[in-house]
């Protein structure tokens, strides 16, 4: 297992095995983070191999440029949602042998209080992967309507007390009372009438707001669609998800793209079909008990792998 700067690379050997790395291949790491997966990919590449990583966090990009001085490696400052446009401009279409996506928030982001991702550390309520883009969580809560906030909490956080939380948070945010992670966590703790035994009451709320602020699910759908155009035939897509919403999107995408479809299902005879574009490789892979003991954040991870036909 690879760790760097306090970051543990989840499902590292499994996700790399899923890529079936060729020494002279061209690979993309969609989420550099602190480079655990990138370093492991580079270690398996020969002199002709190439790796391009993406990250929208300027701190991660700066760290990549300072820590990896390898002519086979490049870092793109941007979201993996931009993969299609970047690949088109760079001439990578149907030339990439593997794409790895680790959808988790990196440990440094969670551990640095000033990034505002964690209810365990008091800091400004930010939550942006790219602090230079879009609204902070604080400003988003002030701007969003109560009904929309409730919808976000219900669908992105799967929060059963979504409406009760939304009412309280919307009121206090607009009154200027929700400025830090502690403000939000304490408010949710007061509002939630029934607590889970082993989960902080604000867990789902923080997840939902982070997903909304960063447009995470839309970005995931965009990069999955882009993978079909960017991967070479036989290229692998290896995706690590951390909550059910992400995994559902990945699972459905791989399932749908691996099926041969009738283009005219309303007609009584089969007129034409669209060919399958992916082949699923194995079943969903979960972290071992040993990995979960080493890193508690691995517990919710699931890896799915597919190959472009």
From TrEMBL:
S-adenosyl-L-methionine binds at residues 35-37, 55, 80, 102, 109. Its main location: cytoplasm. Its EC number is 2.1.1.199. GO terms for cellular component: cytoplasm. InterPro entries: RsmH (IPR002903), SAM-dep_MeTrfase_MraW_recog (IPR023397), SAM-dependent_MTases_sf (IPR029063). Pfam families: Methyltransf_5 (PF01795). It is found in: Cytoplasm. Keywords: Cytoplasm, Methyltransferase, rRNA processing, S-adenosyl-L-methionine, Transferase. It catalyses: cytidine(1402) in 16S rRNA + S-adenosyl-L-methionine = N(4)-methylcytidine(1402) in 16S rRNA + S-adenosyl-L-homocysteine + H(+). One of its GO terms (molecular function) is rRNA (cytosine-N4-)-methyltransferase activity. GO terms for biological process: rRNA base methylation. Belongs to the methyltransferase superfamily. RsmH family. Specifically methylates the N4 position of cytidine in position 1402 (C1402) of 16S rRNA. This is Ribosomal RNA small subunit methyltransferase H.
């Amino acid at each position: 297992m690879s760790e760097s700067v306090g970051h543990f690379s989840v499902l590292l050997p499994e996700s790399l095995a899923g890529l079936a790395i060729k020494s002279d291949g061209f690979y993309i790491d969609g989420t550099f983070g602190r480079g655990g997966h990138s370093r492991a990919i580079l270690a398996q590449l020969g002199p002709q191999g190439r790796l391009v990583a993406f990250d929208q966090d300027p701190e991660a990009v700066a760290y990549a440029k300072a820590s990896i001085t390898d002519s086979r490696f490049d870092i793109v400052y941007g979201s993996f949602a931009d993969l299609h446009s970047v690949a088109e401009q760079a001439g990578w279409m149907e030339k990439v042998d593997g794409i790895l996506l680790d959808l988790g928030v990196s440990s440094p982001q969670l551990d640095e209080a000033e990034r505002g991702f964690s209810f365990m550390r008091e800091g400004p309520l930010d939550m942006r992967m790219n602090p230079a883009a879009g609204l902070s969580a604080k400003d988003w809560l002030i701007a969003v309507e109560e009904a929309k906030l409730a919808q976000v909490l219900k669908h992105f956080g799967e929060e059963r007390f979504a409406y009760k939380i939304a009412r309280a948070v919307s009121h206090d945010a607009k009154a200027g009372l929700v400025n830090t992670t502690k403000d939000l966590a304490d408010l949710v703790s007061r509002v939630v009438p029934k607590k889970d035994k082993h989960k902080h009451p604000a867990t789902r709320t923080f997840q939902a707001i982070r997903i909304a602020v960063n447009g995470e699910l839309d970005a995931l759908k965009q990069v999955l669609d882009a993978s079909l155009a960017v991967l070479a035939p036989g290229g692998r897509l290896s995706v690590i998800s951390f909550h059910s919403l992400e995994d559902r999107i990945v699972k459905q995408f791989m399932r749908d793209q691996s099926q041969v479809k009738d283009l005219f299902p309303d007609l009584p005879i089969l007129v034409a079909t669209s060919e399958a574009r992916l082949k699923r490789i194995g079943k969903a892979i979960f972290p071992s008990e040993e990995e979960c003991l080493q890193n508690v954040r691995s517990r919710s991870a699931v890896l799915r792998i597919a190959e472009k036909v």
